[in-house]
Amino acid sequence: MTPNGSSYDDLKQSIAMAYPKLSNQLQQIARFTLERPNDVALGTVAAVAEAAGVQPSALIRFANALDFGGFTELQQVCRERLLASSGSYRERITQMRRSGKAAGAETGVLHQFVEDGVVELGQLDEHVRAADLSSAARLICNAAHVYTLGQRRSFAVAHYLAYALGQLELKTWLLDGMGGMLADSLRNIETRDVLLVISFKNYTPEVVDAARQAHQRGVPIIAITDTALSPLKPLATVCFELGAGVYPAFRSLVAPLCLAQALVISAGDRLTTPKTQRAPRRAAAPTTRPSRAAA
Q: Which domain holds residue 24?
């Protein structure tokens, strides 16, 4: 038993709690550990240090900062995660590509994006727990109103959720911030509602600020993000961490949209079971709810 428990989930939580107090170099290692746990599990100290862009001694200081006796103990947690994973073929393909042994750019950009999408879906399957899906569906179904918020590339996910949840006859509003009215729209959200936010590194400040304001007012928050180091993590009632992806700079929407569909189906299943059937609700199109200031 390690000082942080035997699971990778415990390690992620420990890293998230310690992260603000770590030096810049140790924060760099923390991000690497969460984004590439398989490299940490399989590499030598020298190889991991080179890949993370730090000195080997920094890995030992990082492990000690998390109360491990050494870096080997931390590696063991990552190895146990890898052994428990059902995606051995996916992991092998990923390692082959990083070593230059798998098909790459010569087969075309479409092939590369398809391959990356498969890896993303593998991470999604490993990272998302059924209990979190159930909790999020319960929050959505019990809310008076569901608000969705995502900016930049995450906007497509927020828009889909607003549309699909509206088709379930849930009162759903897309917060698009049009006309600079985001702050006014946020004031409409009450504690009996739920805010569903989507943001990935580099996190959109407006989305993080909106989640922080809602959290301070006691509004339940469902977050879709990347890792335990996301600023949305401590604000969320339910947080889905999808992983950092293989190429974060060009990360696709395959995994977020797949999760969004699973959320919608989970909510629909809950609504149609006898214990949770409700009176019919008026369907709502995905639109921005008028702010009180504009009313």
A: 8-84
